[in-house]
Predict the structure.
Amino acid sequence: MSGEDWAAEASAYSGGIPNLSGGNTSGGAAGDTSDRTAMVAAQLKRIYKKAVLPVEKRFQYDYFYESPFLSDVEFDSKPQVMLVGQYSVGKTSFIRYLLGRDFPGQRIGPEPTTDRFTVLLNGPEERTIPGNALSVHPDLPFRGLERFGVSFLSRFEGSQLPSSVLKSISLVDTPGILSGEKQRTNRGYDFTKVVSWFAERADLIILLFDAHKLDISDELKGAIDALKGHEDKIRCILNKADQIDRQQLMRVYGALLWSLGKTMSSPEVARVYVGSFWEEPLKNMDNADLFEMEEKDLMKDLAILPRQSAVRKINELVKRIRKVKTLSYIIGHLKSQMPALMGKEKKQQKLIEDLPNVFRTIMKKNNLSPGDFPDIAKFTGKLKDTKFAEFHALRDDQITMLEECLTRDIPRLMEDLPSEKDTPEILRQKMGTATVKNPDSANVPVPNRADKFGRKTDMDAANPFGYGQEDEGNYWALQDSAERLFDGFEALGPEGGFLAPQIAKDLLVKTGLEKEQLRQIWNLSDIDRDGYLDHHEYVVAMFLCDAVIQKGKPVPDVLPMSVVPPSKRALINTGR
């Protein structure tokens, strides 16, 4: 048979596996993580209300950490992405690029145009929602912003529009951070505290810098300081990098890393994405390949946010429980040191002045981590406005409940989430309606613009029916069969996405083909020569078996390119 004949056979292949049970199975529904996230949220709400909230109220967590008690809607909310940066670094343009359209209330310009916090939400119609209305909306997690007063709420608004991106995440656009004399202007509210409030609830924080102005103003430093404790969420962007040449870019990138190292109190180097993050073509194509790879990496971080939402919610509650537990020991210790009758004020003053030693005593006595203690300067200020004699005493039963949350309840909840150790059957049970067939189906639909990097736009990249035969580089004749055979592949118990050699061998032997035919089929299917079959190689093997058994075709000497999975064609071209 010629290569064209084999390509035609592959296009007509229905995904059947002769002589094998369960081979001609069809793929399940598209992946959906909402059920799993809702299950986790319900369990976290139960844990919080039963064990954590009573302790928070008893020891005034909301006062000392300036963090309101959590409401149900905060557990149920979508992942949030917050953008922070100086004015004119491209925050609003980045959001516009991500959404693929303008949004209500959008303001773009070289001057400080975005003068308010804007939350972008999915909705059936385009409209702006005033901040006061947003803060009392029963289905939105913004009630805690009421504490910043009318002055802030008048500079806070919602932008609602129908968007496939906003179905999965919410975006928070912040005012441009000021520099020079402008930063001395009073905004009318505490900017850094508002940033801190959003940072605590955000799943991802994008910190943008302009390649032409890397100076970090006092207000920007204050905002970065407010992000302390959330370093794992921060991604930095060096924007407008296409407007400088390669030599300048190298110097600017190094200068930015140096500035961040001086500003962010973390031993790790911040991850910085370099490029031009809007829809316009690059002004300088010298680094087009680099910018394209950087943009893909950033978009991948954004795309997987919904799938990570359940774990992120667990992580945030664990951090909160650890802080609540430490606060309980601190307040309980201060209460226990107070005299019964005389000299209360003098003793309180002495304890405040000796607070570092008090912290060390509590830490050693209760085996606590230094990282779980509050900032000593801020905590001292809070203590000065309280009366220790009015504090509540430590209750062992409440501490025990917090311990059980960390050692029993939450680990048990983590066991209910998908793990690489799970068998395919257990994985399906855990994921519920979300099948492992297509993990990308739960992703945020991020932009994919090849034209801005000087390449031809891939018109079929987002087409659910795949590539046409005229696109030789991306068309795969077995794509439909691969989807139908996925469940059968998973039922064989692949480890890490690969079938072990013995399992694959036993499967092929069951077809009844001769040993020499199976040897040839294996050589053609195991394209990367690693001795294992991944899903796509498994599909090729099943197709060849079907062609030999059902159609009586001889095993080909080589595979036509249309039958080779696109991801492995480079191995064929290099002769591997």
